[in-house]
Design a protein that fits this description.
The complex is a heterodimer of chains A (about 220) and B (about 240). Chain A is mainly α and about 220 residues long. Chain A has one domain (about 10-215): MetI-like fold (Orthogonal Bundle). Chain A contains eight helices and no strands. The mean pLDDT of chain A is about 90. With about 240 residues, chain B is of the alpha/beta class. Chain B has helices at about 40-45, 70-75, 95-105, 110-125, 140-150, 170-185, 195-200, 220-225, 230-240, and strands at about 1-10, 15-25, 30-35, 55-60, 65, 80, 155-160, 190, 205-210, 215-220. In chain B, strands 6-7-8-3-9-10 form a six-stranded mixed beta sheet, sandwiched between helices. Chain B has a four-stranded antiparallel beta sheet with strand order 2-1-4-5, covered by helices on one side. In chain B, helix 3 crosses helix 4 (about 110-125), helix 3 packs parallel to helix 5 and helix 4 packs across helix 5. Chain B is globular, with a radius of gyration of 18 Å. The chains are: A mainly alpha (about 220), B alpha/beta (about 240). The interface of A and B includes residues 115, 117, 118, 121 and 143 of A.
Chain lengths: ~220, ~240
Amino acid sequence: MGFPVFDENAHLFGQGYLTTVVLSAGALALSLVIGTVVASARVWGGPIVQSFSRAYVEFFRNTPLLVQLLFIAVLLAPRNLNVTREPIVAALIGLSIYTGAYVTEVVRSGILSVDPRQIEAARSLGLSQVEALRFVVLPQAVRTVIPPLGNLSIALVKNTAIASGIAATELLKVAGIIESRTGLFTPYIAVLVAYWTLTLPLAWVVSRLERRLAFAR
Amino acid sequence: MIEVRDLHKRFGGLEALRGVTMHIERGEVVVVIGPSGSGKSTLLRCVNRLETPDGGEVIVDGRSVNDRHTDVNALRKDIGVVFQSFNLFPHLTVLRNLTLAPMRVRKLDRATAEERARKLLVKVGIPEKAEARPTQLSGGQQQRVAIARALCMEPKIMLFDEPTSALDPEMIKEVLDVMKALAKDGMTMMVVSHEMGFAREVADRVIFMDQGEIVEQARPERFFQHPEQERTKRFLQTILHH
């Protein structure tokens, strides 16, 4: 090929894109699990469990994501270094915990939107509290949480850019590297387009889901 | 079958139950009537521990309901409850509403549960609605599904908490008919209701409650024709002559 520099840069860009996708998908999955568990604990747990889940939400929701990522990067550092060698792992953990706090609040409001008499009916049939939640409350809560969760997942994709602050080689970081090599601004335009290729389909999927799960009360 | 001894329950400053003692025999149909706020729904809800009493004891089928060692889920398997507001699960089809608990709690396989559910839908007169969503049904149909859902667990006792109070008048009969058929089949039933016709026709015994106490109880013919207590007489007058 006649443009080895271009090839190399395109390859790097592709890797950055892939990292952003993996970070987004991984953190989304993890934050959904965290959010559902913590929200359930917040609504149905004992007083101690409740205060822990509240503290989690308030702590991670009220400090900047970049600061949290820096702390995690330092915490994960091996003994002979003062920062982690795996910034992508640190970013995945940080994004999951941070987004999980928001998911918790969304799922909690979803749970509270379900008529408590639904739990009464389920428990009266002999279902345990956990079964009542799993088969009766959460499926109904899902319907109300899909639109706000859609917003959160789009925000999450965009927040992956903050991981460049701890040197995770995702899209933005990669664009910076290419810019410093070539002196061109074009990588940043490519970055914008690349984010759109993720967020626009995501928005479409969310609105599809919303329509599919809609049913009259 | 149901044994209630000196039951007390308060909600804040309100004394909902003030020492209620009663029993219901196997196969007996007991209708509990009384003005609103008389404690009749609270009494019913104590029977399967939807409410926890402050004092006294409830024994169902030999098991002490509020004993720490009693498995409340196991107890509730045997007690069907029908609520005023139906409380069907709106995200599930009618058939799934019926099969959820038998499959999860009684561990029936899907085929057995569905067969049982379809039979019950025939029994309550709406076999064609198996695949419908609860919200697509009329109130009367929803309540009949709720009865079928409770019966699908093959309970020993059925509790009805004002089952017709949320229904339009023209739908009350279809629900009462299902309840009458159930009574005829020998089901043990505790019914909190304002349906005096049903009480007169189906009940083995009528209990009148007022201000958290049982004022009077008797067989229906005696209860309606020769009430003994002043409070019962006044109550019957207000509801029969309106």
